[in-house]
């Protein structure tokens, strides 16, 4: 099939690479001229494992365009951003602009797929917009569930494919199934709004699991219990499951914070009090301060102390720093007078007056304390005896409960986790 993807961000580029791998011809359009120029040169503007390789392998089927082109696409995807506005509501202006640009050109043979995470009712509104323009456009809501850092794997092996359709649409499901032929996953077919709600509910539930375990971490700390044992102990219950029970300095990224708040706002608009979402957000908003208090208690004062913060990205295997708890931690430690030196294998610190080390050794050397803020594998695999030699102090603070506690203690270092007594 011939596919046009509008918005060459994480979702757009991953979708493009995967559809090209499946044998489709893909035209990616973005309004960011520099991004398109980079893509045309063969540079991938984001770090996502496996993405560059897929682009190289399937370059004969991948095309990049700056201005919106209206190729004879069978399917047009909207993958533009929907960030939170100043009140926490989803800003759908990028979606609206993309739809406005498409309006004079789109024809009824084409299928329009909305992959961006959009507020409940947006797909219906888009359908009605075209109807008012005299066009009966087949609009499909096909939310995306990929995680950054494993986006290609998640797209090739998704847990499910959610397809939202209008009741009278008897054409689009088979088109979507043909498009995704080769990907084996159960299809959940629902209404346009149903698909939108599934996306928000999935993110809200996952974020709630994290806030739940972070609350348990605070309780574990108070009672001298190890939250890692608790997570294992409850996670083996099939009804609970082991995933998203890693306590830490809170969830971040471009999705959970904005989507939890967005769903909360949508609830208020309907006079529904979202008690659970409020709690999820409150726990996350206070988790970092709670942990900084613990760091302060551990280190005494922070003034002039040299603290190596390992991790800048909001999670490992990405260079994305949007809503990164690691960046917030770096800012807080800096504000407390600490002499912070940050490190990340891929992400770059912007607009913060803190030095970023080029190598791990540079970050660790002479540090009074070392804090892991992002659970990159290379931090988990550090040689702790060597770390001890390099540091001035002996405190290792594991903000993600991801480090080998025994090995660290055996190296003569003090280990401080999250909710670990
Ligand atoms: N990042 C993720 O992991 C992820 C996962 C699932 C769903 N989502 C959702 O997918 C959507 C996209 O997220 P993202 O992280 O890929 O966003 P992004 O910010 O990385 O990329 C969006 C791109 O769209 C471009 N754009 C904006 N308006 C445009 C227009 N009118 N015409 C052409 N290009 C335009 C921007 O220049 C940018 O390159 C959001 O709704 C997000 O909530 C994101
Ligand atoms: O047990 C856990 C798991 C994750 N996190 C944190 O939660 C955040 C989000 O992590 P993750 O969900 O792995 O990354 P995202 O790329 O933000 O993916 C989420 O958001 C996407 C955008 O909507 C969805 O598509 C994905 O399904 C959903 O997992 C990160 O800060 C993680 O450090 C924890 O603190 N504890």
Number of domains: 2
What is the number of strand segments?
14
Helix content, binned percent: 40-55%
Q: Largest sheet, order of strands side by side?
A: 3-2-1-4-5-6
Averaging pLDDT over every residue, what do you get?
97
| CATH topology name of the largest domain | Rossmann fold
Q: Count the DSSP helices.
A: 16
Uncertain residue segments: none
CATH class categorisation of the largest domain = Alpha Beta
By CATH, the architecture of the largest domain is named 3-Layer(aba) Sandwich
Biggest pleated-sheet summary = 6 strands, parallel
Provide the succession of SSEs.
EHEHHEEHEHEHEHEHHHHEHEEHEHHEHE
For the termini, the CA-CA separation is 57 Å
- Cα radius of gyration in angstroms: 23 Å
Shape: globular
Quick one: CATH superfamily of the largest domain?
Answer: NAD(P)-binding Rossmann-like Domain
The small molecules bound here are:
nicotinamide-adenine-dinucleotide, uridine-5'-diphosphate-glucose
Overall SS class? alpha/beta
Binding site for substrate: 145-148, 199, 244-248, 252, 315
Active site: 255
Enzyme class: oxidoreductase
Catalytic activity: UDP-alpha-D-glucose + 2 NAD(+) + H2O = UDP-alpha-D-glucuronate + 2 NADH + 3 H(+)
């Amino acid at each position: 099939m011939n596919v046009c993807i509008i918005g060459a961000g994480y979702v757009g580029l991953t979708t493009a690479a995967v559809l090209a791998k499946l044998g489709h011809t893909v035209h990616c359009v973005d309004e960011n001229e520099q991004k398109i120029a980079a893509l045309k040169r063969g540079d991938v503007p984001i770090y996502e494992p496996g993405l560059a390789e897929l682009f190289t392998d399937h370059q004969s089927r991948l095309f990049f365009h700056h201005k919106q082109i209206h190729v004879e696409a069978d399917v047009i995807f909207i993958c533009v951003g929907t960030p939170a506005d100043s009140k926490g509501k989803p800003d759908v202006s990028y979606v609206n602009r993309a739809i406005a640009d498409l309006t004079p050109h789109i024809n009824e043979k084409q299928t329009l797929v909305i992959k961006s995470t959009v507020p409940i009712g947006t797909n219906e509104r888009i359908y009605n917009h075209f109807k008012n323009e005299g066009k009966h456009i087949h609009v499909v809501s096909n939310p995306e569930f990929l995680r950054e850092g494993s986006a290609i794997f998640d797209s090739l092996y998704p847990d499910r494919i959610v397809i939202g359709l209008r009741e009278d649409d008897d054409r689009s499901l088979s088109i979507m199934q043909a498009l995704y032929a080769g990907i084996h996953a159960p299809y959940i077919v629902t209404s346009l709004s149903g698909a939108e709600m599934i996306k928000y509910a999935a993110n809200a539930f996952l974020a709630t699991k994290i806030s739940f375990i972070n609350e348990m971490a605070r309780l574990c700390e108070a009672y001298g219990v190890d939250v890692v044992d608790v997570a294992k102990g409850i996670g083996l219950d099939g009804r609970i499951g082991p995933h998203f029970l890693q306590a830490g300095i809170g969830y971040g990224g471009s999705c959970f914070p904005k989507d939890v708040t967005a769903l909360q706002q949508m609830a208020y608009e309907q006079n529904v009090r979202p008690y659970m979402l409020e709690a999820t957000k409150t726990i996350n908003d206070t988790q970092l301060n709670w942990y900084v208090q613990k760091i302060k208690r551990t280190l005494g004062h922070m003034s002039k102390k040299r603290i190596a913060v390992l991790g800048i990205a909001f999670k490992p295997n990405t260079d994305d720093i949007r809503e990164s708890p690691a960046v917030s931690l770096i800012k807080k430690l800096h504000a407390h007078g600490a002499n912070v030196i940050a490190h990340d294998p891929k992400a770059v610190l912007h607009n913060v007056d803190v030095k970023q080390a080029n190598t791990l050794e540079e970050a660790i050397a002479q540090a009074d304390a070392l804090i892991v803020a992002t659970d990159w594998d290379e931090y988990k695999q550090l040689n702790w005896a060597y770390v001890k030699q390099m540091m001035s102090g002996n405190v290792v603070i594991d903000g993600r409960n991801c480090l080998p506690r025994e090995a660290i203690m055996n190296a003569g270092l003090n280990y401080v986790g999250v909710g670990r007594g």
